[in-house]
Amino acid sequence: MIWPFSQSKGFAPGRYLLSLNAIAITPNISSSSNVSDRLLVLLHGWGANAQNVAGLIEAINMIAIPFKGLLPDAPFNHPMVPGGKQWYGFPPNYDFRRPHDFAAQPDLIESRQQLKNWMESLPAQTGIPLEKTIMGGFSQGGAMTLDVGPQLPLAAMLILSSYSHAPIPTCVTSRPVLVIHGRQDPVVPLAKALDTKAQLERQQLPVTYREFDMGHEVSLDALSVASQFCQDL
Question: Which of 34, 57, 80, 82 has the most crowded CB, counting CB atoms within 10 A?
Answer without folding.
Answer: 57
